[in-house]
Amino acid sequence: MKEITAKELEQKIDAGEEVNIIDVREDEEVAGGKIPGAKHIPLGQIPDRLDEINKNEHYYIVCRSGGRSGRACDYLQEKGYDTTNMVGGMLDWEGEVEF
């Protein structure tokens, strides 16, 4: 599984790179703020929402601490998607958040 730190992802965003981010946390967690532009798909809904994820794009997967996003990455990679897990999750995120 490919991994990226919160700081490395923040640097990509700050540099103006176009990144696709999926936040797999639950609604109440996302209410506390998410990375600007991130798409919110709770982990349990991913199998039912694969049509919202483009196999031709690369996605950074985010959760609270990196565990659920790791599981999401494993699942999506098995289905043929290109993903990278943000290790440390939102606990390590020091960049901007949107509500």
TrEMBL record:
Domain Rhodanese: 15-98
Pfam families reported for this sequence: Rhodanese
Annotated SUPFAM superfamilies: Rhodanese/Cell cycle control phosphatase
PROSITE patterns from the UniProt entry: RHODANESE_3 (PS50206)
Keyword Phosphoprotein listed: no
Identification of the protein by name: Rhodanese-related sulfurtransferase
Native organism: Gracilibacillus halotolerans
Alphabetical keyword list: Transferase
Transferase keyword on record: yes
Record Gene3D superfamilies: Rhodanese-like domain
A molecular-function term among this protein's GO annotations: transferase activity
